[in-house]
Amino acid sequence: MEATKVLVKEGDLAIITCPFCRKTKKVSVAAYKEKRKPELRIKCSCNSIFCLCLEYRKHPRKSVKILGKSINLSQHRKNQDIILMNISLWGIGFCPMRKYEIKKDDRLLVSFTLNDNTNTSVETLATVRAASKDYIGCEFDAIENFRSSLGFYLFA
Question: What phi and psi values does residue 31 have, to the nearest 5 degrees?
């Protein structure tokens, strides 16, 4: 059974909708936050059982597959082709195309083109917040230049 992602809002509240009967309920999920349970099995009043995955991000991420480039400004301007895997108003997650030495707090110049109606080009500075050998999570340093385009892209 595939889990449905549910965004947890401020105050640890989530709006849960049964995928079978469409009944919706706002519930507190504070107890699950402390237990760090990634998935929950829910039984609805219609007797259907379904799985939820609680998403605690402030801004939801959109899954994508977009080619881009990254220049590591912290390590002698090393250049790398990347595949963006997800994007939000505040950052990106990507996979490097080849082995890539990178660490937390490195500064990157990333560039990519959104697959929107106008093929919006984005070039911005970002700071590495999470790094493993095959996935890098970054936070944008500033988004003023492309905030509106990115907002339309994410919520279209």
Answer: -65, -30
| Half-sphere exposure for 108 (CA within 13 Å, toward CB) | 35
> Domain check: are 39 and 94 in the same one?
no
* Cα dihedral value 46, 48, 53, 55, nearest 10: -20
Expressed as residue numbers, the domain containing 148 is 62-155
Element (H, E) at 43: strand 39-43
**Whether pLDDT at 40 is above 70:** yes
Of 16, 36, 55, which one is at a domain's C-terminal end?
Answer: 55
Tens digits of residue pLDDT in 78-130? 889 999 999 998 999 999 998 878 999 999 999 999 999 999 999 999 999 99
pTM over 0.70: no
